[in-house]
Amino acid sequence: MTSSAPRTRRPTAGGPDGVVLLDKPLGLTSNQALQRVKRLFEARKAGHTGSLDPLASGLLPICLGQATRFSGYLLDAPKAYRVSGRLGSRTSTGDAEGEIIEQCAWDHVGRDGFEAALLRFRGRSRQVPPMYSALKQGGEALYRKARRGETVERAPREIEISALELVAWEPPEFGLDLRCSKGTYVRSLVEDIAAAVASCAHVTALRRYAAGPYDDCRMHSLDTLKELAIKGPQALATALLATDTALDGLPQLQLDEEDARRLAQGKIIATDAGAGVGLVRLYAAGHFLGVGARDAGGKLRVRRLLDTSGDG
């Protein structure tokens, strides 16, 4: 999680740079929410870091300006959700927006048996993505094929569920808290859990409350952002976290001016060979520069730097 004192970013002449933690409301697609935030901040570039279905609410980190250069690190980050489901019926979409396509017995399922089934889904496994997903096959999103009544074979993908807990049990209704890797489809997970107890189920509500280094304690609703925008750019900027907060899980490396200049030129520099291997956040004179990768010999290469040309 991020620290209790968030690093905020002030607007610049080239447009805002940073991350907005949006509390996405029900009923909006992630792209619709993104476009509204982009207009409020008058940002030239914007991108979200992991879609939420219209049925889902909660944390949607939105990168603005130069922060979009590092959005991929958040796309790859683990996420946390609270999901509500209902045993006894399966829908065409896996959630409450779809038509009921199967009804199953559920009154044989007890709490102990349900919790025992959850144990089988913790850890690494392979999951078949649902037809109602944005994954593409043959250049077309699967959900478009599904809307035409088509079903195509989908290759299973490896996922990891690091936490899965039953937090509500009023059968046929239940609630789960889970932490999972990128690419995990919660709708499919709920269906698979129900199948493990010889029933079927669908998602009735879904809320994301954590993504990578961010949690829900500093989210802003669209209404709050609109109110700040009315007060002016400086007020709106208080909702903007600094770009490097997206990388809080990476170790920091402070560079002197000469090494920073050489890295900016694409050169490899030598660092302490015992300082660790992998991605690092780069700083010089207290300013965030970007991300580098250090090998076992201490050699440091650039992965992604901020644009200092003024073009964003």
Instruction: Give the strand tally.
Output: 18
Largest sheet: 9 strands, mixed
Helix content: 10-25%
**Topology as a string of helices (H) and strands (E):** EHEEHEEEHEEEHEEHEEHHEHEEEE
Verbal overview:
- The chain has 312 residues and is α+β, with helices and mostly antiparallel strands.
- The protein folds into 3 domains: 18-77 and 213-246, Pseudouridine synthase (2-Layer Sandwich), CATH 3.30.2350.10; 79-211, Pseudouridine synthase (2-Layer Sandwich), CATH 3.30.2350; 250-305, PUA domain (Archaeosine Trna-guanine Transglycosylase, Chain: A, domain 4, Roll).
- It is built from 8 helices and 18 strands.
- The strands form 4 sheets. Strands 1, 2, 3, 4, 7, 10, 11, 12 and 13 form a 9-stranded mixed beta sheet that branches. Strands 14-16-17-18-15 form a 5-stranded mixed beta sheet. A two-stranded antiparallel sheet has the order 5-6.
- The longest helix is centred in the N-terminal third of the chain and has 12 residues, at 30-41.
- The protein is globular.
Notable traits:
single chain; nine-stranded mixed beta sheet; 21% helix; 312 residues; Pseudouridine synthase; disordered N terminus; 34% strand; globular; alpha+beta; five-stranded mixed beta sheet; 3 domains; Archaeosine Trna-guanine Transglycosylase, Chain: A, domain 4
